[in-house]
Amino acid sequence: MLILKNKDLTDNDVTDFDIYQNRRKFMKNAAGVGIAAATGLPLIEANAKAVKSPYSTNEKLTDYEDITSYCNFYEFGTGKSDPANNAHTLVTSPWTVTVEGECEKPGKYNLEDLLKTVSIEERIYRFRCVEGWSMVIPWMGFPLADLIKRMKPTSKAKYVYFETLHDPKQMPGQKRAVLDWPYTEGLRMDEAMNPLTLLGTGIYGKDLLNQNGAPLRLVVPWKYGFKSIKSIVKIHFSETQPVNSWQKANKNEYGFFSNVNPQVSHPRWSQRKERRIGQFRKIKTQMFNGYEKQVAALYKGMDLKKHY
Ligand SMILES: Nc1nc2c(c(=O)[nH]1)N[C@H]1C(S)=C(S)[C@@H](COP(=O)(O)O)O[C@H]1N2
Ligand SMILES: [Mo]
Description:
By secondary structure, the protein is α+β, with helices and mostly antiparallel strands. The chain has helices spanning 17-29, 43-48, 64-69, 82-86, 111-115, 144-151, 189-193, 245-249, 292-295, and strands at 96-101, 107-110, 121-128, 133-143, 159-164, 184-188, 198-203, 206-207, 217-219, 232-238, 273-276, 283-284.
């Protein structure tokens, strides 16, 4: 079975930090750790065998319970617990990803087939929402760049944008015009190709739960969380800069680049500090969410004090 369903996950399955670390050690000793997906294993096993990455932080992980119960996924409601309560109606297998626009390999791809060609890594990233909270999440996934290279973008492809599924039957929050559905997000091509940019397939060694954007979501750790679009069904290569859902909703509050920047306040909130979920004291927000070394060069010459 490709996807572990919400209802299959009982409290006994919830992996806390220690169990997770021990299992990781066990897996390492048990050999065979490696390119799980490439050997044709189903996604769930590929996630469990994800290879460690030098891009990971060793900060304390946010609890699995918090990551999977405190969510933003407006397709299932605007409350933090709505996605965990309501997202069981989303059917994630089979799942088709349509690739279109400026590339040589457009088409409709079955996710299961796509995943056979990539290797799943573990990436422990800081994750910072524009609302002022943050988490440390052990993602499973693969570099977006690996998929983009296979689709052979043309020289006209300057941007790539993504769409979430649009189906109010499966996503009841779409019955209300909270946003202009489907949810859309985009990256400039060099941002998309940056090695930090991940397509997420799991968390804590398990397949993504629906509330976290199953079966495939973007993870861009140096940008505010809303850039990390969930439950992706379309990848489009374009010559012009796309407009994302939050820009469309309120261009005075949200821009295209949306890089984490403690110096630039959101019109309603300062971005200097953040609340790490599970911790009491607020901590200082870092430039580019602490990924300055890896990404600052992408924005050379840009006025970073400006709100984009
Ligand atoms: N399709 C879709 N993607 C989305 C959202 C959404 O409402 N719909 N919310 C975004 C926001 S604001 C954040 S902070 C993150 C939250 O991810 P998490 O719930 O897995 O922590 O998902 C982002 N991706
Ligand atoms: Mo967010």
